[in-house]
Amino acid sequence: MSFRLWSLLLLGLSLLTLAQSGPPLRTLAEKHGLQVGAAVEPNLLLQDPEYAQVLAREFNLVVAENVMKWGALQTTRGQFNFAPADLLVEFAQKNHMAVRGHTLVWHQQLPRWVYGDFTPAEMEAILREHIQTVVGHFRGKIAYWDVANEVIGDDAELRPTPFEVLPDYLEKAFRYAHAADPGAKLFYNDYGAEGLGPKSDAIYALLKSLKDKGVPLDGVGFQAHLDLNFSPTAARMAENLERFAKLGLEIHITEMDVRLSGPGSKAERLQKQAQIYQEVLQVCLRQPRCKVFTLWGVSDAYSWRAASEPLIFDADYQPKPAYFALQRTLQQP
Ligand code: GLA
What we know:
Elements: H1 3-21, H2 25-31, E1 35-40, H3 42-47, H4 49-58, E2 61-64, H5 70-73, H6 83-94, E3 98-105, H7 120-137, E4 144-149, H8 169-180, E5 185-190, H9 198-212, E6 219-222, E7 225-227, H10 234-246, E8 250-259, H11 266-286, E9 290-295, H12 321-331
Keywords: Carbohydrate metabolism, Glycosidase, Hydrolase, Polysaccharide degradation, Signal, Xylan degradation
Domain GH10: 19-329
EC number: 3.2.1.8
């Protein structure tokens, strides 16, 4: 078959898929003033044309799944590798998508050298240089930065981290990021805080204290890595979001996925998964300060929890019940 015929056939097939699956999520979300995002591995944009196609069709925001983490950007001290992250930003710009930067201060995926024996002054220089260089590199191109990720542990206390040798490292990180790109909105991001409870209380107290000190903090991200037992109920989640909204913070759902594992037939579990996606989206849509709804990946094939099929497209890019549940929800006025 000639290349031309082949392209026509591919185009026909994509139009057919579109016709079958209805309007893309991003088109529907725009009517609500909502951005729908997905976490992306830039190498897949090069390797898998269908991945790039579905991503650009359905989403209007991307977040780097890994390539903007400290370990990826500054594996060796003083040497920055921006190539994969730049590729992602270019793709986003070409497809009119916003970009979320993820993440500047996190206790994981750090390069080994950060665990060295540093004085507070040395750590301050390390943190400042990393944030200035990274945020400065993308200045004007990144709408939101997850400045801090998972700073509060499951015990509701501050987590141990190599940065803690520097007093006020968190506050400083936000200030450095703001200085490097005053146009980017700066976020605190965490998991297991969707509902009310000790961890979410601790995050609330921390963010309130940062706001009280005048730290440039714009919003809070709730990761929403969930499973079929999703507890907080939607009502408790709405109540939780509301108290953060009252602090003046913008609210984002930043990493949603829902593990399919559990009892029951596959069809039942797919329905339950769809219902959980729908509930979280509804909570977001009903909260005026909730502006972003992001999934931690595009298709089950490449998910960090691939075995539990947590996303809205299956490994063959077929939309799952969860996709249609989001679409129906966004179709409501
Ligand atoms: C956390 C991080 C993400 C990602 C997931 C697991 O949620 O914020 O960057 O690493 O864990 O992949």
